[in-house]
Amino acid sequence: MQLIRIALTKGRLEEQTARLLERAGMDLAALREKGRRLIIPLPGGCFELVLAKAADVLTYVERGVCDVGVVGRDTILEHGGSFYEVLDLRLGTCRFAVAGLPGTDLSAGHEKKVIASKYPNVAAAHFRQRGIDAEIIKIEGSVELAPLLHLAHAIVDIVESGRTLRENGLAVLEELMPVSARMIVNTTAMKLKKHEIGALIDSVARAVEEDI
Ligand SMILES: Nc1ncnc2c1ncn2[C@@H]1O[C@H](COP(=O)(O)OP(=O)(O)OP(=O)(O)O)[C@@H](O)[C@H]1O
Ligand SMILES: O=P(O)(O)OC[C@H]1O[C@H](OP(=O)(O)OP(=O)(O)O)[C@H](O)[C@@H]1O
Questions:
Q1: What is the DSSP string of 90-114?
Q2: Most buried by CB count within 10 Å: which residue of 52, 63, 68, 121?
Q3: 185-205 per-position pLDDT tens digit
Q4: Band (142; pLDDT cuts 50, 70, 90)
C-alpha cells in the first residue's frame, strides 16, 4: 500500500469533511485530538491528513506534495489549476451571487460599476460575460461592508442562508452558480497510485450517496 496524503481545507469545511471521511471508513480520532498539529497520520499507515487554507490546498495538490484535496468549488473557480476534480462531496453548499442594496441596477447608466469581492477573478469573468464595464476591488472578508460604505455598487460573494445579506440590509441581485466542496486529485498521483486513490474515491462516493 502506498501512502495517500490528503489536504483538507481548515475551518468551515473541516468538520463536515471529517464526518464524511468517517462514514467512508476512516478512523479520524487523531484528527479530533490534533491540537495545533497540521499533519495528522492516520492509524494503519495508509493516509495522512494535511490541514491547509483553501487556496493552498490547490497549490499542494497541483504540485503533487499532496495526492488528494478537499476544497470548495468557489476556490477552484477563483484560482484555477491543473488537477482532476473527481467528486462533488455535496457539503459546504452555498452559491455565488451578485448582491447589493435592494433595487440596484448594474446595467443602468454608463459609468463604470465598482464591484467588491473576495473572488476578483470570478467577479471579473461574470461582468465581462455580461458586457458590463466593471472595476473589481479585492476585499479580504466581510465584503458586505463595501456597498454599505459606498466603496462599491455591488459585491460578488457566496451566499448560504442569506442571513449576512439580510441583517445588513442587502439583497441578492443576481444568482450566479451553485458551490459545494469537491475532491481533487493530483494528475500524476492518479496514475502512480491508481489503486489506492481509486479505492478512496469509491468509498467516499458511496458515503456521499448514502447521505442523500
Ligand atoms: N457561508 C458559507 N456556507 C457554506 N459554505 C461556505 C460558506 N462560507 C464558506 N464556505 C465554504 O467553505 C470554504 C472555507 O470557508 P472558510 O470561511 O472556512 O474559509 P475562508 O473563506 O478561506 O475564510 P478564512 O479566511 O476566514 O479562513 C469556502 O471556500 C467555501 O467553499
Ligand atoms: O448567507 P450566509 O449564511 O449569511 O453566509 C454567507 C457569508 O459567509 C461567508 O463569510 P464568512 O463567514 O466566511 O466570513 P468572511 O466574510 O470574513 O469571509 C460569506 O462571505 C458571507 O459573508
A1: --S-EEEEEEESTT--TTSSSSPEE
A2: 68
A3: 999 999 999 999 999 999 999
A4: very high
Enter the ipTM.
0.95
Q: Is the CB of 161 under 6 A from ligand 2?
A: yes
pLDDT above 90 as % of the chain: 97
Find, among 155, 112, 157, the residue nearest to 137 by Cα: 155
User: Can you tell me the distance from the alpha carbon of 80 to that of 73, in angstroms, rounded to the nearest whole number?
Assistant: 10
- Per-residue pLDDT for 1 more than 90? no
Enter the C-alpha cell of residue 191. Answer: 496514475
Q: What pLDDT, in 10s, does the model give residues 15-66?
A: 999 999 999 999 999 999 999 999 999 999 999 999 999 999 999 999 999 9
Ligand that lies nearest to the alpha carbon of residue 162, given by its number in the listed order:
2
Best residue among 8, 9, 10, 12 to mutate for probing ligand 1's pocket (most ligand atoms within 8 Å of CB) is: 12
Contact criterion met (CB below 8 Å) for 9 and 53: yes
Q: Does the CB atom of residue 142 touch ligand 2 within 6 A?
A: yes
Q: How many Å lie between the centroid of ligand 2 and the Cα of residue 123?
A: 16
| pTM of the entire predicted model | 0.96
Give the atom of ligand 1 at the shortest distance from the alpha carbon of 140: 25
- The three grid cell numbers given for residue 151, joined into one nine-digit string: 466603496
Q: Is 104 close to ligand 2, i.e. is its CB under 6 Å away?
A: no
Residue whose C-alpha cell reads 441583517 in the numeric block: 167
Sorted by where each starts, the structural domains of the chain and their CATH numbers stand as 4-92+180-210 (3.40.190.10), 94-176 (3.40.190.10)
